[in-house]
Structure formats: structure tokens, C-alpha cells
Amino acid sequence: MRFTNALAQPGLGAIAEVKRRSPSAGDLRPDADPARLAAQFAAAGAAAISVLVDERFAGTLDDLRAARAATDAPLLGKGFFSTEEQLRELREAGADAVLLILRDLDDARTAHLLAYAHDLGMDALVEAHTADELQRALALDAPVVGVNARDLETFDIDRRLQLELVARAAGDRIVIAESGVHTRAQGAAAELAGADAILVGSALMQAPDPQAKLRELISRPLVKVCGLTRQDDVDAAIEAGADLLGFILVDKSPRRTDAVLDVPDTALSVAVFVEDTTETPADLIQFYPDDGGTVRGREALLLREGREVARVLDQPWRERDPTHWSTASAANGRIVLAGGLGPENVRDAIAAVRPWAVDAASSLEREPGVKDHDKVRAYVKAARQ
Predict the structure, then answer these.
(1) SS3 of 266, please?
(2) Which of 282, 380, 298 lies closest to 337 in space, CA to CA?
(3) I need a surface site. Which of 50, 91, 94, 322 has the fewest CB within 10 A?
(4) Rg of the chain taking only CA atoms, in angstroms
(5) What is the pLDDT of residues 282-301, one digit of tens each?
(6) CB atoms inside a 10 Å sphere around CB 236
(7) Where does the pLDDT of residue 28 fall: very low under 50, low under 70, confident under 90, or very high at 90 and above?
């Protein structure tokens, strides 16, 4: 199926949503042109496009037809559906997939609609919000499962629960993290939990340039500023646009800190350890299995809830390896490139290695553990351009 296949591609995909209004936030983009937006989202790299066809979101089937006429990208018809007639209408209007919300459907009806959608040549995104609903989706063997961070009754967002459920669902099916993604780091959190794609609506519709916002959310590499010891430096890195904030909890390091400082939920905190780890509130752990005979070795594991999600490839401690970039470029999987990176060379490093993330520490300092904010801004800007 076109929708499922598009979402099964390597890396984090995005379903970009055309939505004029939201029951929770009111008007988002009342003048949204579904044809124009669908074409822009496809050009910006959307794996698929979601179109709200429900009047509560100021949408109609004509919006779906307009999007279909403007792009060949897979289209998800989104609304509240429970009948065969509604699915036929969606298919005739150009939908490749339909949203089925478990809150509103019992298991027998969901199973019937899944089979009927398949007969129509459509995929189905089966949406869960709670642990019980996720268990139902898994029991139904739904090929594509969405985990919505928004409670459809209270409209509250619970991203922590969403990530927990995404991690449970990940495996032999496509998993979509729906709602609650406004930054690259929030998308990356879903990716590392096991999501194949994110579904983004409000963040795009509220952006001055929805196409540019979509490009930003799915662009790589992520940018990490490490060796932070002061809250003022954390705040400066966040303001500059850093996605990952690193705190080194290693006695021998000149950038040692006693604690993970405050990081807003728009970014991810990373606690760095060598040889051993301890409990930490950080979102991720960067673990060097050995000290390399000095302070740290050259390779670390990036861990989420104890599971490896990426590898950190570093330079030798206070040394340079001229083959570092070429070696890193040949590595498989998610790679965080570290060692000797700064504003002057990070673009070249990205071009040579194509890493999932880049990591800098000492090159951004005035003295060990104290960041130069101008250098931080220049580094993040260079890495994200």
C-alpha cells in the first residue's frame, strides 16, 4: 500500500497535516489552501499528507479532492469515521488511507473497517491514546498504529505517556507519533522511542511558513552542545537552537558538572558517563564503556531507557585522527559525530559524514566548562543551515 510503504522508509518520516482550525486551539489558519499546502509539503519531504475533512476542523471532502489534484503524495483522510459509506467517499475523493480512532470504535467495528479499507485499496491508521487502546490496536494486528499525545476529551498533551506507548508499540509495524511535536528535538524523542514518523498539524499551521517549518522538523543532523556546567550557558544554547544539551558527570573531566541542569521540553538533555552510570533525570545517556587510558574512550553509546539508539564517534582525548571523518562516514546506523567540531568546520564535517547529530564542547568555550555564547550561536547556525 502506498501510505504504509511511504512511512516504512529509513529515517524519521513526517505526515504533514492540512488543518484550518482545532477544537482545542480555535482557528489556526482559516484561509489554508489545501492544494497549495499539499504541494508545498510534498516538496518539503513529507512522507504523506493528512487532510482534515470534518466540519469541526473547518474541513470538507473538497479539501481532500483539492489536495489529490495537487500532489501524488499519499493522502490520509482524517476525521471521525465509522461506516463503509464514509470510507467509500474518502477513497473516491482520493484518500490512500483512513484514520480509525479506537476511542470511538469497538474492536469488531474496527476490524470490519480495517478489512473494508483493504478491499478498497486503502491503508488505515489505527489511533490509540491510552495503554488499553494500544493493547487493542496490537490485538487487532493493525499494520499502522498511531499514538496520539492529545487526549481527545480534555485536549491535554502528555508526551511522556506518548513516548512510553510508542516504545511499547515499536517492532513489526509502522508506528506514528501524533500531536505534541513542535521542535526537532521532540520529533527526535519520538524517533528514538521507536516511531517511524510523526504527524504534525498545529505546529505547521501556526508557523509563518509551514513548508519551512516542516523542513526544519525533519532536517538532520541534530545539534548537540556538550560540557555545560552553568544554567546561563544552557539557556544560551537553547536560544541559539541547540537540540541536545550535554552534561558530563565524569570526575576526571575538566567540564564535570554535579547535576543535569534545567532543559525545557523543547530540547533533550544528555547525561555523559564513562565506565559506569548512575540514576539521572536526563532524557538520554551517552555512555563511554572505557576511559581510553585518559578521561574517555573514542566511542560511546547513546542510550534511551537503557537501549542503544545511536553511536557517538569521537576523536581521541586531546588528539586528532586525520581519518576520523572518513571512518565515521562509513559507519552504519545513527551516528553522532564528535571531536574537534566548531563553527569553522561543522558544515564540512556534515557534508563529509552525513551524521544523525553533531556534538561540540571545548571549541565553544572561553574556559573549560564556561561557554562563549557567540561561538555557541555561530556553531548552531552553521550546523543548521
Answers:
(1) coil
(2) 298
(3) 322
(4) 22
(5) 999 999 999 999 999 999 99
(6) 21
(7) confident
* Shared domain check, 7 and 145: yes
Sign of CA dihedral 185, 190, 194, 197: negative
Spatial distance between the Cα atoms of 45 and 58, rounded to a whole number of angstroms: 25
- Gap between the Cα atoms of 240 and 256, Å rounded: 23
Segments forming the whole domain that contains residue 282: 222-384
Query: How many angstroms separate the CA atoms of 109 and 90, rounded?
Result: 18
In this structure, the answer to whether residues 207 and 333 fall within a common structural domain is no
Count the domains in the chain.
2
226 and 182 inside one domain = no
pTM for the complete prediction? 0.95
The C-alpha atoms of residue 272 and residue 249 are separated, in whole angstroms, by 6
141 and 269 co-located in one domain = no
The Cα diameter of the chain in Å comes to 69
Chain CA centroid to CA 118, Å: 28
pLDDT-derived band at 171, boundaries 50, 70, 90: confident
Average pLDDT over residues 234-262: 97
Q: State the cell numbers at 142.
A: 493493525
Return d(Cα 338, Cα 358) in angstroms, integer.
Answer: 6
Are 294 and 344 part of one and the same domain? yes
| Residues annotated as catalytic (active site), given as ranges | 17, 19, 78, 127, 148, 178-179
The residue whose grid cell reads 569521537 is 314
Q: What amino acid occupies position 166?
A: V
Q: Is 218 exposed, middle or buried (0-12, 13-18, 19+ CB in 10 A)?
A: buried
Q: What pLDDT does residue 371 have?
A: 98
* Average predicted confidence (pLDDT) for the chain: 96
Confidence band, pLDDT 50/70/90 cuts, at residue 154: confident
Distance CA 20, CA 22 (A): 7
Domain of 320: which CATH number? 3.20.20.70
**pLDDT over 80 at 1, yes or no:** no
C-alpha cell at 336: 553522532
Residue 134 has pLDDT above 80, yes or no: yes
> Which pLDDT does position 24 carry in this prediction?
77
Q: Give the model's confidence band at 36: pLDDT under 50 very low, under 70 low, under 90 confident, else very high.
A: very high
